[in-house]
Amino acid sequence: MLKNSFGSGEFEAGCDEAGRGCLAGPVFAAAVVLPPDYQNNDLDDSKKLSLKKRSELRKVIQRDAIDWKVAWVDNKEIDKINILNASIVAMHRALDKLQIRPGVLLIDGNRFHSYQDIPHHCIIKGDGIYMSVAAASILAKTYRDDYMENLSLEFPNYAWNRNKGYPTEEHRKAVAQHGITPYHRLSFSMQLSLL
After folding, report:
1. Are the beta carbons of 165 and 146 closer than 8 angstroms?
2. Domain that residue 179 falls in
């Protein structure tokens, strides 16, 4: 089972993002504050969970969390500020929406810009270590997947309902055949030009 606390003695918000390595669509982020004594043996890095398990856990997280919020940065803003900064901005936006103020932030990864005056800890693979970060990874992933499935109705040729905007062979072939859409990230044009 993952750790339920960093040990700060304060409310801790776990933060993670989804969609950083995509050719299309926004990057999503979530912030989750779990009860200090929370226990859940099923929480884990969203990438290690099945679609069905992620969907089930999303409901559990939203029910059990003290607070949770999801936010995103769209492809046009990603192109302006780059994907790393966009990921951090998305996390800040999720934190902005929280109703309670956490005392500590647990950030998945190794880069973050300070948020207000709240202490933060960057934790590589934190979504496989801390429950709150795993919960954030699940919410960010499932909300982004839902978003991309809706976009696929507008642009069915790109199979975003399956690849979620990631550079799969199917997606890359669609770009080569049909060109880019208003939802593609132009900052990845080098990748696209190599197709």
Report:
1. no
2. 12-193
